[in-house]
Design brief:
This is GIY-YIG domain-containing protein. It comes from Vibrio inusitatus NBRC 102082. By secondary structure, the chain is α+β, with helices and mostly antiparallel strands. It contains six helices and nine strands, in the order βαββαβαβααβαβββ. The chain has one domain. A hairpin with a 2-residue loop joins strand 2 and strand 3. The strands form two sheets. It has a seven-stranded mixed β-sheet.
Amino acid sequence: MDPITCRKIEWRGPFSWPDYEKENGLPALPLEKGVYLQAFEYSGGYLIYAAGLTRRYFHTRFKEHTRSYLNGEYNILDVPSATSGIRKEHWHGWEYARNNRDEFEELRSALTPKINYQLCNFRIFVANLGAEPRIHERIESSIMNVLYTQLPPVAELPDRGMFLSKRKPTEQAIILENSCHSILWGLPRHLEI
């Protein structure tokens, strides 16, 4: 097997969730594709809630996420708790949401302002690594898995049960050298993918 290679990744941001730029004063997402982090402000930096990837423009993917949030498909967090490093849910999405549509519809009017508040308070970081879908999948997986192994509050905030596509035994290991002008709590400087 080939020796381990190293690749640099620069996380840029924070950017706004689309359509909340006026409320939070952050710049719009760049017209790019790649890997992204959803985070909340926390202790002079940012606490990562989720890593993701998109083969479409960031703006397009986040519009899809917005629809899923507004339909109750995703978890709705209490933002003041999240920015204090505590995971507290107003609504549990995913499988629970699929099995409890009626409950969400009854709560929709109360939950919609909380959803909008969460989206407005997300801080998005992005990295454009070119058109290498498999590398993007491995980065997403490695970031989420390293977050899960951290001490609280880093390990407390991220969702569990995501479909993650980690490195296969037949794939060459790559060391990512992460850099960012902001503090991204729990993201190590070097990460094997």
